[in-house]
Every structure is written in structure tokens, then in C-alpha cells.
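Mods, move this if it's the wrong board.
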Amino acid sequence: MDQIASGTAGTKAARATLQVPAPTAWPIVLAFGIALLFAGLVTDAFVSILGAVLAVAGAIGWFCDVLPQQKEETVEVTEEAFVPTSLRRAVDRLPVAPELPRALLPLETYPVSAGIKGGLAGAAAMAILACSYGLLIKKSIWYPINLLAATVYSQELKFGTASLTQFNMESFLLAVLIHVLTSVLVGLLYGTMLPMFPRRPILLGGVIAPILWTGLLHSILGLLNPMLNQLISWPWFIASQFAFGIVAGLVVAQQERVHVRQLLPFMQRLGFEGPGFSEAKHRGDKVP
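Not the wrong board. C-alpha cells:
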């Protein structure tokens, strides 16, 4: 019995320690030497020489720490009792469809029509703000329209701002095409992303998304079209983006959701019926 007790005590003592690699500073010396070695290529040869010396010293020192036997040190292991706590009184459960082999999130999404409706509604809200800016600031409702068309057809910018305040049928049709197309595409994106944030749909559509693409456009517009970057009014542009995001998000969120069908076979989603495409029917089932 004494031997068993001593053996148990020895096992507990062995479990209380852990062998880990000993700390070493040689990898940092090696990395610093390599950095100086390449820095000397654009500065001075003595910098490269110093880097080579440090790199060789770091490599030798590192190899001596791990070869022929790695240096280790003993670390005591302390067990901490972890008790999970939460301020919530109840635990949220994810809804799982019984016919699916696993949880497919989200279980419901918005149809394509919801994204189109949201995009068109957001486009109208954005157009109202943009035209208000042109009427109040530039004294012409055609200024923001021609400015939008100039993102593709920048020939008008070469004639100065006077041409931007005049009506031009080509610029008008081009601006409408750009505005409607991009708005519908963003609306479809909203219809796909908003189900992932069921509790905060407006936070994503009206705040996060406009900030992201406004920052992206602000950073690249100077490279794509420098003259347009000087003429655009960023405060009004940001306000119109928020208006689009909020209106589009509200319209999409009000639409009725449909169940996702990603796990169904592609042929079954197309409506084909046949061996291997759908489940076998019983003799008593009625054939539509």
C-alpha cells in the first residue's frame, strides 16, 4: 500500500511540471542581421558586413541551443478551476430545420425581388438628396447628374463646371443607367447580407456598409479621376450614401423571407423529377 501511495504521489508530482523549450534571443539576432544585410545593399557596404556577422552569430547560437539536444526548462503547471458565468438568464437556441442534416444559417433569406425593391427605393432617396444639393448649392439640378455621368464619360469635365450645370441627354441617360444599375446590385447585396444580422439590419445597411464603400471610394477616386475628386462634395455624398443605406435596408427588411434551398440537389431546385433527382414515390401517392 505504501508503494502504491508513493507511486501515486510521484505521478502527481510528474504531472505538476512541464518541459518546454528554453527561451533564446538568437532568432532575434539572426533576423536583425539579415535585415542589416539587405539594408546595406542600398546604404553602405559596412552595414551589410555587420549584418552578415550578426546573422552568422545568430545562426550558430541558435543551432547550439537546439543541436545536438534541445535545451529545455521545467515549468510548473497550475490547475485553475474555471467556472463559466453569464449575465443572461436564458440561452439562445439556433433554429434547426428538422429535414436538414445540419444547421444551415441563415435558415431564411430574402428573395431577389426584395433586393431589387430595396435598391430602387434607395436610389430614389439618394437621387432626391443629390438633386437637392445641385439645386441649393450649384443652382442647377443637372449638376449632380452630369457629375455622375462624368465617372465614365469624363469629357465634360474638360469644358469646366459650366457644362455640368446644363442639360445633356447623353449624360442624363448614362447617369440614370449607372445609378439604377449600381443601386439594384447593392440592393441585391443587401438582400443577401441582412439575414446574417437579423437583430441589427439597419446597423449593417445604413451605417457599416456606407462607411466602408465611401472610405474605399474616397481612397481610390483621386487615382481614377483626379478632376472629379476635386469637384465632388464629400459631405453631401456621404449623406446620400447613408440615405440610400437606411432606406434600402428598411425596404429589404420589411419583405417576407423565404426558406433557403442550398442543400437541395441542383436538378431538384430546377424542378426536374426522375430517378436520382427526387425521393421515390409510393404507389398510393397521387402524381400531379
